[in-house]
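From the pipeline queue, job 12 of 40. The input is one protein chain; the requested action is below.

Action: predict structure.
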Amino acid sequence: MSDAERELESSDEHRVTPLELFLDLVFVFAITQVTTLLADDPTWGGVLRGMLVLAALWWAWSVYAWLTSALDVDEGGIRLVMLASMGTMFGVALAVPGAFGDDAVLFGVAYLLVRLLHLVLSLIVSRDDPDRRGAILRFAPTAILGASLLVLAGFLEGDERLAVWFAALAVDYLGPAVIGVGRGWRVAPEHFAERHGLIILIALGESMIAIGLGAGFELDAGVLAAAALGIVVVSALWWLYFDVAAIMERTRLMQATGLELHRLALHAYSYCHLPMIAGIVLFALGLKTTVDHVGEHLDTVPAVALCGGAALYLLGHVASLLRTTGRVFRRRTIGALVLLALIPAAVAIPALGALALVSTVCSLVVAYEAIRHREHRVVLRHPELAD
């Protein structure tokens, strides 16, 4: 990395602002709404629709994360546009439970407005930067087309609606990969990594909410045991991201420059963090069902969500770390495969036993990494001790 590039990236760095966190809270409410959507329709079709909605929400959040990465938007008139975006995003979140029902058109229109406001903000802040403005203009057609297709989907039914949803998300997600994230894009690595870490943290909080909602008002021994096991799993998921993985990814992002920096940000964060969020949402569905039916057997979908959600979270880690470090983290891969293999058992035994199995696997992955690589872990977390 040249001195000029380092100086430019250093000048882009700034603390995550309260306004960004405000927007993140709205996004987490939208995630909670997705969990509600799944809980109201715990079928394979319901899971598919819920994951499609989550993918749309994630991309809407991601484009704002890119916008605010290298620019402080918490000033002047830009703040007002950001607040308008936040309010519109709240409207999207309110429409999530009916995104494939009576509120399909409302969801599509609100989502289109969120994306249009992002483009307006981007053009405003890039008015003195021709390269950045050019990048936004190259990106705009896919953003408008993808969001417009969701409006169209609101007027359709059944398989036609699903097909248009798939097309809309394909346009959104493949747009940057096809167009490229080269000249004109700006990423402040530390801020970008911190922002994604915070959204993972807040999303994990949604699993805590699932425990509370499932527990209700009757706190018998079974419910308390399920709540305790749920806390163990959520704590393990937190540890797996924040103990060393987040540090390794952030360090690699800070070392990159130019096109490689932009590609790492797109692949490791915008793409690979989605499976982590999806895993958290699915696990929250299984956890809520478990706490609510401790002594009963889980149906197939909640059992798959309980084990498969934690597995998907781990696989998201594996993909993100592979992209940033070039290494396959075998322990997390094996842990994910074991969790998937436990799905038949999760269906056959009481819900509390299924949750105990998931808790055991996640805890063992954490314990193995912490003990087996304790020296490397200490150096990574405390580089001043490297000598």
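Job complete. The two ends are 25 Å apart (CA to CA).
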